[in-house]
Amino acid sequence: MNEVYDGIVIGSGPAGSTTAKKLAEKGWKIAVVEEDRFGGTCPLRGCVPKKILAAVAEMRTRISRYEEAGLIAESRIDWPKLQAFKRRFIEPVPFQKERDLQHSGITTYRGHAAFAGQQTVEVNGHILFAKRILIATGAKPLELPIEGREHIRYSDDFLDLPELPRRIVFIGGGYISFEFAHIAASCGSEVHILQRGPSVLEGFDEELVQRLVAESEKIGIQVHLQAAAKAVVQHEKGYTVRTDCNGVSQEFEADLVVAAAGRKPNLEGLALEKAHVKYDKQGIAVNPFMQSVSNPHVYAAGDVAGNGSPQLTPIAHLDADAVVYNWLNGNEQIPDYRPVPSVVFTTPKLASVGLSVNEAAEAGHSVDVLDLDISEWFTYRLGGEKNAKAKMILDRNEGHILGAHIVSDEADQLINLFGLCCQLKLNVKDLQQLAFAFPTPGADLPAFLQ
């Protein structure tokens, strides 16, 4: 017998949970299906556990900078104890998330969801029917198609390591590799990052990336450009990663090989063909309202949506808000992808929001660039940050802040302030008149614009 709902949500991460709860508040009968643990990638195997490990690693690095100020500390990281600390945050999440959904009047199903028709989903032998279905299954690590790929581990594995190996090779030069590399190096591991292309951390300001690479090398991280991994070979003492480095074969020895070469939409086993849902390697093909272009009953949100939006948790929430509105009122709302800050949680941190210089020019703006070496400013001298730098992208005619790019220990907090400026299209003159607590990193914000 079919079980009938107003809406079915496949996936319980930020996009799925937000959609389900808001619709339930409006009186909709909602079912949420989760194959894995309730909560999704961000709180369980992404942002939150990563930030816990990174915060402790950052503290150790920052303490070492204060030795000349009189702070004499022999610090080390006890990895098993750190993992136990992390689990205190992570382990309660699935139970709390499912309970929260159920308390909102939502029916939850644990199991794999597969479409049985355009408006039906099968879960553990149950056939669920709904007038609307949301796919919010997120993304998963991209597997490398190389020889010996069975020896490669991925981000989930690294976050749950019971012991930290002495030698680690990370394949891929994106933010995940750099964040994990800083964690591992701060704990004493020998770390290599292999990037097949000529640059790392693509999408961030190139000059600021080079400053971060310089700081990474100071703590022992070795970054290898144009080093394409070709094979992973297991032997008695660990693994050998064979690479092609500018046409020359090179080998790297490791006790652990972690691939962090990107993520792909998690579509496996959904039987989308049975629902006539079009998709490609980018994800579910959707129109501007997050609705499937081939099945009007189906929508997609978050990392699984193939609309080219960044794979960020705030984006998932924006998608969910649009889906809720459109299910309640008809297709009227397009997600407002206003500038959303992104941060690489290394030491120092690398952060960006809004447009780059080239993007601003291509969008037709008359551009002014404030290029500031802030390493001699009080905040950064105090923290011993020798590579702190900020770039502001301004509209010369309107005075609006179009973008900001920062490398510093304080970048994660500052980029939120600049994100606010970009999102509200604040005028530079107005911003210069604001008063902040002093001395704090925020108090530097008006000074950036002098």
CATH topology grouping of the largest domain = FAD/NAD(P)-binding domain
**Count of helices?**
14
Q: Characterize the biggest β-sheet.
A: 7 strands, mixed
The N- and C-terminal alpha carbons lie at a distance of 69 Å
Number of strands: 23
Class based on secondary structure composition and strand pairing:
alpha/beta
Q: What best-fitting shape do the alpha-carbon axes yield? A: globular
- Give the radius of gyration: 23 Å
Q: Kindly provide the name of the CATH class of the largest domain.
A: Alpha Beta
Helix content: 25-40%
Strand content: 25-35%
Work out the count of structural domains: 3
Q: How are the elements arranged and paired?
A:
Elements: E1 3-10, H1 14-25, E2 30-34, H2 41-45, H3 47-65, H4 79-90, H5 93-103, E3 107-110, E4 113-115, E5 120-123, E6 126-135, E7 139-141, H6 155-159, E8 167-171, H7 175-186, E9 190-195, H8 206-218, E10 221-225, E11 227-235, E12 238-245, E13 248-254, E14 256-259, E15 263-265, E16 279-280, E17 283-284, E18 298-300, H9 313-329, E19 342-344, E20 349-354, H10 357-362, E21 367-373, H11 378-382, E22 389-395, E23 401-408, H12 411-424, H13 428-432, H14 444-448
Parallel strand pairs: 1-2, 1-6, 2-3, 6-18, 8-9, 8-14, 9-10
Antiparallel strand pairs: 4-5, 5-6, 7-15, 11-12, 12-13, 16-17, 19-20, 20-23, 21-22, 22-23
How does this structure look, described?
It is a single chain. With 450 residues, this protein is α/β, with parallel strands linked by helices. It has helices spanning 14-25, 41-45, 47-65, 79-90, 93-103, 155-159, 175-186, 206-218, 313-329, 357-362, 378-382, 411-424, 428-432, 444-448; strands at residues 3-10, 30-34, 107-110, 113-115, 120-123, 126-135, 139-141, 167-171, 190-195, 221-225, 227-235, 238-245, 248-254, 256-259, 263-265, 279-280, 283-284, 298-300, 342-344, 349-354, 367-373, 389-395, 401-408. It folds into three domains: 3-141 and 264-329, FAD/NAD(P)-binding domain (3-Layer(bba) Sandwich); 149-261, FAD/NAD(P)-binding domain (3-Layer(bba) Sandwich); 348-448, FAD/NAD-linked reductase, C-terminal dimerisation domain (Enolase-like, domain 1, 2-Layer Sandwich). The chain has 14 helices and 23 strands. Strands 1, 2, 3, 4, 5, 6 and 18 form a seven-stranded mixed beta sheet that branches. A five-stranded antiparallel beta sheet has the order 19-20-23-22-21, with helices on both faces. Strands 10-9-8-14 form a four-stranded parallel beta sheet. β12 and β13 form a beta hairpin. The longest helix has 19 residues, at 47-65. The protein is globular, with a radius of gyration of 23 Å. The N and C termini lie far apart (69 Å).
